[in-house]
Write a structure and sequence with these properties.
CATH architecture of one domain: Orthogonal Bundle
Radius of gyration: 23 Å
Strand content: 5-15%
Structural class: mainly alpha
Shape: extended
Number of strands: 3
Order of helices and strands: HHEHHEEHHHH
Largest sheet: 3 strands, antiparallel
Distance between the termini: 59 Å
Oligomer: single chain
Length: 197
């Protein structure tokens, strides 16, 4: 292995250690709940994609089927999920959250949002955007071609959209091309004409 490649690997591993530590992902339970990261993720995906089958969850989360089966049995015992046999294939069951399961995942999502809000609280708005864009870049690069086909909805502009476009355009051109606010004014003038017409 080349020195450059080894250096890149070490930097990625260092970032992974930093990130898992900052989110408390190595704790026995997630967000001071009684559930592990894997269990919470399974509940989240059942809630997001319901109805979903266990085999679909195995593929989506790359889990061992026996491990998932044990987790789902625990969820069922605690009245967090319900299973409903498919009419077309009696061997398969659709999984969905019960009211108790939905309430639990809602509370956990709220806690997760609060955790991230705390992490970014002292970061200025521009750096928050840079952070999010860096994360999206990581996600885009690491996704396989089949996973990267996302759904985009094209709509007409709304109030605030054009202002945001001018702002982001100004920030990017300032960083990449060292252009000042006079160029931003030039862009704003033509975007104003776009709105009027």
């Amino acid at each position: 292995m080349s020195a450059g490649k080894l250096d890149r690997i070490e930097k990625i591993r260092r970032f992974n250690r930093f990130y898992t530590n900052s989110l408390g992902l190595l704790d026995k339970t997630l967000l001071k709940s009684h559930y592990s990261l894997t269990e919470v993720r399974i509940m989240f995906e059942i809630n997001r994609l319901s109805p979903i089958t266990a085999s679909e969850l195995v593929k989506l989360l790359n889990l061992d089927p026996a491990y998932l089966s044990r987790i789902l049995s625990g969820f069922e015992e605690n009245n967090l999920i319900r299973k409903e046999k498919l009419r077309t294939d009696k061997r398969k069951q659709h999984l969905s959250l019960t009211l108790k399961g939905k309430e639990l995942i809602s509370k956990l999502q709220e806690k997760a949002n609060e955790q991230i809000e705390k992490i970014i609280a002292n970061i200025n708005h521009e750096d928050q955007n840079r952070l999010v864009n860096a994360m999206l870049t990581i996600e885009r690069i690491l996704k396989s071609d089949t996973e990267s086909a996302e759904f985009y909805s094209i709509r007409s502009h709304k109030s605030g959209d054009i202002g945001y476009i001018i702002y982001r355009h100004g920030v990017i051109y300032s960083i990449e091309n060292q252009l000042d606010e006079s160029f931003e004014a030039y862009v704003a003038k033509y975007m104003s004409e776009f709105i009027e017409n």
